[in-house]
Queue: 2 jobs
Job 1
Amino acid sequence: MKRRNFIKVAAITGATTALDSCGNPEHQLIRFIPEEDLTPGVAEWKPSVCTICPAGCGLMVCVMEGDAEVIRHGQAGLMKMGLAKKLEGNPTHPVNQGKLCPRGQAGLQVTYHPDRLAHPLKRSGPRGSGQFQEISWDEAIRELVSRLAALRSTNQAASLAFLTKPLSGQRRDLIEKFLQAFGAPPGISFEPFDETVLRRANELSFDRPQMPTFDLARANYVMVFGADFLGTWNSPVAQSVAYGVMRQGRAGSRGKFVMVEPRMSQTGANADEWIPAPMGAEGILALGIAHVILNEKLRPSGEAARAGQLVDGWAKGLPDYTPQAVESSTGILPATITRLAREMASHTPGVAIIGGAPLAQTNGLFSALAVNALNALLGNVERPGGLLFTPPLPSNLPAPGGAAPASFAEIRTLVEKAQGLQGLLLYDANPVFACPRSLGVREALEKVPFIASFGNFIDETSVLADLILPDHSPLESWLDHVPESGVPEAVVSLAPPALHPLHNTRAMSDVLLDVACQLGGPLAAALPHRAFEDMLRAAYEGLGGPKKQEPKEAGAAWDKMHAQGGWWSAEVQKPVFPARPVSHRPYANHGPAFDGAEKDYPLHFLPYASPMFLDGSLAHLPWLQETPDPVSTVMWGTSVEMNPRTAGLKGIKQGDLVEVTSQHGSLRAPALISPGIAPDTVAMPVGQGHEHFSRYASGRGANPLAILAPMIEPETGALAWAATRVKISRAGDGRLALFAGGLRQHPQNEGER
Amino acid sequence: MQIRYRRVYMLLAAGALAGVLLKPIIYGGEQAPANPAQSQTSPEFTPAHRSFADAVRDFFGFHPTPVQPIAYTHKVHLANGMECANCHNGAENSPVAGIPSVKLCMMCHQAVATDKPEIKKMAALYARNEDIPWQRVYDYSPTAHVKFNHAPHIRAQVECSTCHGDMRQRTVAVRTVNMNMGFCVNCHKLRKVSVECITCHY
């Protein structure tokens, strides 16, 4: 027999033997004793809090018994444990009222993500290489404590910075107390789509430095400037529920919805009337409408009070904003402006909403103040059917929003002062990805001698860390959140862990408490709680009314709070309307300024929060990657959206690879030809283009934030992320993954099918 | 030349096939599998079989008796006044009756009969934070697509012994009742309950 044939035969026989003997690998694993007692096959719904965005929706987690492959005491094995099968909205929660957005639904994959960090890590390769080695929690905490103790003993405590995702409630309070007692500056809460401008405008106009809430359910007329309020902006689930009531839930009175934006968003596609205003001209249009109302005396001019006084020329009836003047800067017909003004004035209550790209201009604050003044003029503020503010909690707990995080300005300062930084703590903030590359965040952070990260994934920022102390997933943690907006009443979303920890992780809050205890001194005194649960209880138990004296009922309020998923006041609280006089000079429009000359860079560049990934922090979840964009149906990638006319000029066809170049860089992505975008604008969803962010997001698509110019809204220091001009050119053939053929529902011609 | 080699291949292939086919018949019945932690069918719900041998065993309806890691005796526990549902507490309200974790056993056996070798074995597992690797006794072939739910049967007051035999006479559990489709349908007919396909096969 030839050797070759012998090998063939041996392979066949061997395969059969192997087939027979190979067991199911699960059965080679040992079984650990379960940590909880569950009835197999019976679902238990436990409350939790959605941490995907800052809206603070209440969750119900479907927990069922299942087998999980876990590692306990260094040994791999199987364990029967409660596993989350599905997330839904908490029906009793006042923010989302039982509803949940697709991002919230996909939050389940955070817990079971294959690339989630399962144990503490220490950097073993050069910084940024992504090479880490596993260490024990004792080692990790010892390392962190010794680094912090060294900073403190050398009087360098002030050179420690803490960079977090937007947090609220006790987790933020814990970080603030920690930093204060340590002697470090306050933590920086990083929001890529900086809302500082709107918070600042609301502070100026209404003395409320927080995001607004809209009583859409009772509104008759809604005019929205740029805000994707049904998709990604502010408190989208609460707003969508109320919007549904406005449009279809009231017999005989369907509210009108007008959308002003240069690119048709998911929200704009729902509007009765869609008005493409040029970028940065939204405030001018709002004042044009206010001019007509004032001129025709549809509302008394004094109604706007303080909000009006902040706008230059208000007292004189806005002479610079006649419909003809507004037409010359926006291209919107005077007849349209007059009609909109009359409709708005006669269909009260109503509300004008501004958010997103209009505020990300160099005149963002002016536009926000203009819309605030229009709302005040129409009598929409703090009225049913109008603009409201979520009241603070009825105790001395931190207010929702509170000290508004001026995040981009703080990041800029951090980058400038990075030389002097001795230590950086990170918690799920990713400025390396989400800041314009021209800012040099990565280069600045690389110089910091010690970086520790608490996040449970490796992303572009935490890959630079020296030490990673992975947090529990949100479903495994004690959570609290004080929604800044979305509800007319004070709310605390609060929930105990719905699951036992799957991996060898520890809650960031518990690690900080432990570190504070080990560091001793003022830190231990400032944070006396041994567990975050105790801290939450101490903070929120008092909300449930006076403490009962009978021992039997002592914990009743607390038990009720975490059984229902939070605390909310029964009656709507009377808002405190500001009586203080205006302390600022009136603001005039100093035109939007754009980076790049119009001659060389003819197109506006509009990055927008992706309906699936928001600012990119969710690109690691495969359910969201495979969900088509609701308007364009793009999935598993990015696209550059452009008008057919713009594309035609450059000879670009659907799916062609397009190079987008700004003064600060360029990127390539396939073209998406859409009639719903102004010819002078190209738009891109934010969220793809990650370098290090799990197997599902790394190396996929392009990141539009990277090529932005570091343009600043001068009054607030916020990043003007929609103030960059670009040019485009065809770079070759590309691939565009569209679901169900894209924008057109029906082929126009029979042959196109 | 060629023909001679072809014969050799065929002989080898036939030998391999026969080995696989005969193995369950030779070893399957009473003798334990080499690794007690191997179950006979895949625990995943899939129409495919884990191995060719599994398919053959399934086709002929062989159910090798599993060897349990601890020689548990149902007889002693039931004689001492315990009920089935004390340990198999899922039966009343869940599809699965469930096997208790070693935690439940240790609630009593921390104090009771601690000198017995089997109890010592169990205590050693408990000390290592390991559960007892019980072997499945009752299951359905994945190709049968049967979904069995304990709870409605218990609600209909079907005795546990109807399907599981009289455990008061048994030490470790063995398949005393041949649970094939005929067995199920007979009882369903007797009790005048649904015999629609979709009741069990879905």
Job 2
Amino acid sequence: MHVWRPLYVVLALIAGVLVARHVLVPRDFGVSSRGYTYGWHRKSNEAEWKAIKPKYRGRDYCKDCHEEQIKNILQSPHAPIQCENCHGPAMDHPDTPEKLPITRDREQCLRCHTHLPYPGSARAKIKGIVPEKHYADTECSACHNPHHPGQ
Amino acid sequence: MITRRNFVRGLLRFAFGISWHPSVATVAFRKRAMGEEGQAPRWAFLVDTYKCVGCGFCVKACKLENDVPYDANVTRTWVERYILTKSGEVLADTPKGGRDGFITPKVQQNTGHYREVKPEEIAKAFFVPKLCNQCENPPCVQVCPVGATYQTEDGVVLVDRQWCIGCGYCIMACPYGVRFFHPVYKVADKCNFCYHRIHQGLKPACVEACPFEARLIGDLNNPDAPVTRFINTQRVGVLKEDYGTKPQVYYAGLSKEVR
């Protein structure tokens, strides 16, 4: 009967949406303990984030081969600075990359050692220079040993 | 014929029936469900602005660790410099997000403009690292139309890169400006406390890179963790508390000029 036709169309549309939803939405899509507002997500995405490989490996990763340098820096005021802050992320060194690029420009040292006399900030307590007035064209490491700046 | 009695009876049956559906049940019994889990950590961050010197090693490490394009104007964490002059002015800048540190006393004003501030003009000045607050009530998650961003059981807000449609609602919703559009993956991106690292027993890249222990992470459910003990016993603040987002990044030495 012609009055039922619109109803069939609507039912077909609803069925279409439900089928499409079934095909497109991942099986593990659902609500977690925090309810719809905050916890509605694809569960397996959590594991995907957890599985990412870290690039920064930390000092312990370096110490087996570079024992001497680490011993040196640990006795200096630079002890709290991680190897990778200047040598870059180790990743799978020595396989990939074979050699780590060393950041040794003045800007690297000036991150801390530009004199900024800021009251209330620890920056004021670090020995600092006015970059334009302190051997402006020379690399810091020409005079200062970054692993043992006191020497 | 529908009698009143039948109508009410049917209504009650319907209500009882639907209450067993998981989506309704999880909301109604949420508290109990959370209490049963109990053991999941609740990650929280502690930033000590007294200790930060603005070296920017954290920003550099974050960008390299998390594949955030190094030279693009986006970053998951950044460091702000605040200078309060004796005449009452508040100057703030974060050149390149503090990625290369603060190596000049000149303060960036607008693109390409710098302002010289003499040391004797300065009343106080300090650095404030910023990152995702992993809010207890994250507004960015509420607005996501597709369920691509969500809060995990341990309190970290993640983005599902496969599911995100890049609409940008969450970027607008975050009161802290923490989210951005990732130029390579073409989805929303944000700090997630280095979720991969904290689940592999490591510290977040920024925490590891900080030479001054200005950035620390800990589990709020563990009362003996140093961060938890500090938050519970010392004076700490959070950003934009009145928004009701309940941030889980706590700051020592916060000042009202910091927003």
